[in-house]
Design goal:
The complex is a heterodimer. Chain A is 24% helix and 26% strand. Chain A has four helices and nine strands, in the order E-H-E-H-E-H-E-E-H-E-E-E-E. In chain A, the strands form two sheets. A six-stranded mixed β-sheet of chain A has the order 4-3-2-5-6-7, with helices on both faces. In chain A, helix 1 packs across helix 2. Chain B is built from four helices and six strands; from the N terminus they run αβββββαβαα. The radius of gyration of chain B is 15 Å and the shape is globular. Chains A and B meet through helix 4 of A and helix 1, helix 3 and helix 4 of B.
Chain lengths: 189, 134
């Protein structure tokens, strides 16, 4: 179901065409995911790992929806910038501070589309010999998938549109929106 | 990882080269146009139409076809992909359409390249002797 922009965000109407997921819809689904994770990981002290920066909004809400003991850590990878391209291959810009060996690790992502970044990170994390390694994604864009990645938890499927908000950005803009909206074509490039 | 022979093939379109570089960046193995699939034959059994997907990702057992054609020009390619699925149902082919290609470029910060996709109507003639294909 789509909606108009909330009144406070009317200034965005030239950029954002419609609201795809309202703040309330997002929060409800995040709480459902938190409840499922609490049930499945009870007594396992899971470590939630997120890749910066887009995931911070989802991670913060998800953590508060989890009712069992849990820890969190973040990792960052080099973006596909001209400088990084010159180096030839993706690199960790910030590593985890927590050893993974023997831990039950839940990798938390805001959105999975091609799966290229996540595939690289999962290979990296798996080499650290966690007791288990699963994936929780709030948004899945299967139309773009190149690498098949099993998702233990999934929030929503995304249509083949350029969407922003709740951590999703376009050139670092719109991350702060509490809803997810569809960006107008003229706002791109 | 990536292109095992590390030789840069002669890509038919700049978008293909960019796609290959992105795969390399993330350490994904790929091959360029490794296989041609016959689609139509004449009465003598000669192949009259064939389809050569742009990329093969061996670790995913996935063929990838890229297009920057506007949707109204892509009908022939779509028809051939449907025919491909009829004849080779066990072969996985993923089509990256024009908008998906643009979004991919935007996602990886390739704004100029995305702008070029946005601004072009079609692509150069391809290997399959089809003026609408890339």
């Amino acid at each position: 179901m789509t909606r108009k922009l909330p009144e406070a965000y009317a200034w965005l109407s030239d950029d954002v065409r419609e609201v795809l997921f309202s703040s309330e819809t997002l929060q409800q689904r995040v709480h459902e995911l938190g409840a499922a994770i609490s049930r499945d990981y009870a007594g396992r002290n899971p470590l939630l790992v997120g890749v910066l920066k887009g995931v911070v909004f989802f991670m913060a809400d998800l953590l508060r929806a989890i009712t069992v003991p849990v820890e969190v850590d973040f990792i960052a990878v080099s973006s596909y910038t001209p400088e990084a391209r010159a180096q030839g291959i993706v690199r960790l810009a910030k590593d985890l501070e927590t050893p993974l060996a023997g831990r039950h690790v839940l990798f938390v992502e805001d959105v999975i589309d091609t799966g290229l970044t996540l595939s690289y990170l999962l290979r990296n994390l798996r080499a650290r010999q966690p007791a288990s390694l699963e994936v929780c994604a709030l948004f899945d864009k299967p139309a773009h998938r190149l690498i098949n990645i099993p998702l233990r938890y999934k929030g929503f499927d995304l249509p083949d549109r350029f969407v922003v908000g709740y951590g999703l950005d376009y050139q670092e803009r719109y991350r702060h929106l509490p809803f997810v909206g569809v960006l107008r074509a003229q706002a791109l490039i | 990882m990536s292109n095992p022979e590390r030789r840069v093939p002669a890509f038919a379109h700049p978008a293909e080269e960019m796609f290959a570089r992105i795969l390399d960046f993330y350490g994904v193995a790929w091959e360029y146009e490794p296989r041609t699939f016959p689609l139509e034959w004449d009465e003598q059994g000669n192949v009259t139409e064939a389809f050569t997907p742009d990329f093969y990702l061996p670790d995913q057992d996935l063929y990838v076809e890229l297009t920057t054609l506007r949707p109204r020009l892509a009908s022939h390619k779509n028809r051939r992909l449907r025919r491909m699925k009829e004849l080779y149902p066990d072969i996985n082919v993923k089509l990256f359409k024009r908008r998906e290609m643009r979004d991919l470029m935007l996602k990886y910060g390739l704004l100029q390249e995305a702008g070029r996709i946005q601004g072009t109507a079609a692509q150069p003639p391809s290997k399959d002797h089809d003026p609408e294909t890339a």
